[in-house]
Amino acid sequence: MAAPETARDGGLRALLSHTDQALCKVEAGCAILAGVAALTTMVLVSADALMRHLFSAPLTWQLVLTEDYLLVALLLLAMTWGYRSGGFIRLDMLVNALPIFLSTALLRAGLLLSGLYITKLAMLSAAYALKAWQRSDVVMGIVDWPVWLSWVWLPVGLGLLALRLLLDAVSPLRAQAETHA
């Protein structure tokens, strides 16, 4: 017989549910921004190729913008949405052979440790982006590109991923039902 749900448990579940819903909205917004970055990248690369071959007038600034800014944003802004929607490879042969309580404990420990590690990476990258902004660091070229605009996507994307991993570590596991189905 299961113990009755206390008001505290219900409150915690409600808090986790509301946090998950809010995080899902932010993840969806970031995924849309990543899609815009992908579309912009495709348009710029195509325009550069056309300008280069038809008019011998390439968009000389396009490569740095695409490579150092748009592709970084594309990857990092979509990463947490991709994780949440199952867009990753899971090696779970051993986990499936374990009893459910043990596999759940291992999964939660892995999520917690990963979340803490990604949190540290997010903090370090935020500090670097802030320093680059304070020092007005630039990548010199035809356009002087601010370095912080390339680095700002790391703490945003990694911070969201850390929140998702830590939330999944303490929430009822969605993936557990799929793993043992």
TrEMBL record:
Protein name: Tripartite ATP-independent periplasmic transporters DctQ component domain-containing protein
UniProt subcellular location: Cell inner membrane
One of the GO biological process terms: C4-dicarboxylate transport
Ranges in coiled-coil conformation: none
Annotated Tripartite ATP-independent periplasmic transporters DctQ component domain residues: 42-174
Cross-referenced Pfam families: DctQ
Entry-linked InterPro entries: DctQ, TRAP_DctQ
Keywords carried by this UniProt record: Cell inner membrane, Cell membrane, Membrane, Transmembrane, Transmembrane helix, Transport
Topology of this chain in the membrane: Multi-pass membrane protein
Ranges that cross the membrane: 28-47, 59-81, 93-118, 148-167
Organism: marine sediment metagenome
rRNA-binding as UniProt keyword: no
Lineage summary: unclassified sequences, metagenomes, ecological metagenomes
GO annotations of cellular component type: plasma membrane
GO molecular function, one term: transmembrane transporter activity
